[in-house]
Amino acid sequence: MPVPDAPVTGAHPDQPAPPERPSRLDPAIVARLRRTPDGLVAAVVRQHDSGEVLMVAWMDDEALHRTLTTGRATYWSRSRREYWVKGATSGHHQYVRSVALDCDGDAVLVSVDQVGAACHTGQRTCFFTELPVIGEVIS
Amino acid sequence: MPVPDAPVTGAHPDQPAPPERPSRLDPAIVARLRRTPDGLVAAVVRQHDSGEVLMVAWMDDEALHRTLTTGRATYWSRSRREYWVKGATSGHHQYVRSVALDCDGDAVLVSVDQVGAACHTGQRTCFFTELPVIGEVIS
Question: How many Cβ atoms from other residues are within 10 Å of residue B128's Cβ?
């Protein structure tokens, strides 16, 4: 069986019904999203000028709407099951400069101006745990 | 109600049972992952030297194991429900230089040397669709 090289676009077998939470997101964008079974897309957050990848969080349709219309990065907390505005309690605001959707609609790339640390541990980026790559292939 | 500023670590209310697909992933890493309801973590892929964010794909435990031990980026296709090795059919290989896990275990950052286009559309990056940010806040 050939191994596919790219995600297949179109209908997703696990695509759930539209999320139960009400959303004001532009229907043209709603139609392009391909969500996890719990109705979310991955939001990759990077510092707009350096390009550093800071964190990944999750957005439902309404969180994406709020991010696009308030200029403040807003996510859906999978554990607390509520919206959170980055920086609201920590002061580590994320001012949104641009948002891009990927080709198959399951992720957005959010370019921000990050105040202070992106990570709740106090580190600048959440990706500070290196995993061992033991089968490196040199290109 | 206070708005949380960061994902909560620890037990995830939606955390599923370990994935049904067999995996050889190091149990120490298995224990750190927090997966979507369908057993996946988000894999953010960037070009190792320029830092450009190329794509987001999905990994189950075994896909992460294969990525770490073969040096070739390997994903789980949500639509086809099978593993795919990037470049196997297109020649657009991803040679893995490093992999980092994020603080709450739901995403990995994969730094690669990307041959050719990362996107199946032929574009270098999958994030070529800009969404309108109409509420920009200047920091």
Answer: 14
* Order of strands, sheet of A53-59, starting from the edge strand that comes earlier in the sequence: A53-59, A41-47, A107-114, A94-101, B129-131
| CA atoms of B68 and B48, how far apart (whole Å) | 15
Here the ipTM equals 0.85
pLDDT in tens, B47-65: 999 999 999 999 999 999 9
Best residue of A60, A72, A125, A133 to probe chain B, by most B CBs closer than 10 Å: A133
Q: What residues of B are in contact with residue A80 (Cβ under 8 Å)?
A: 4, 8
Q: DSSP characters for A47-91?
A: ETTT--EEEEEEE-HHHHHHHHHHSB-EEEETTTTEEEETTTTTS
The reply to whether residue A53 touches residue B56, judged by beta carbons under 8 angstroms, is no
Asked if B112 and B73 count as a contact pair (C-beta separation under 8 A), the reply is: yes
Q: What is the pTM of this model?
A: 0.86
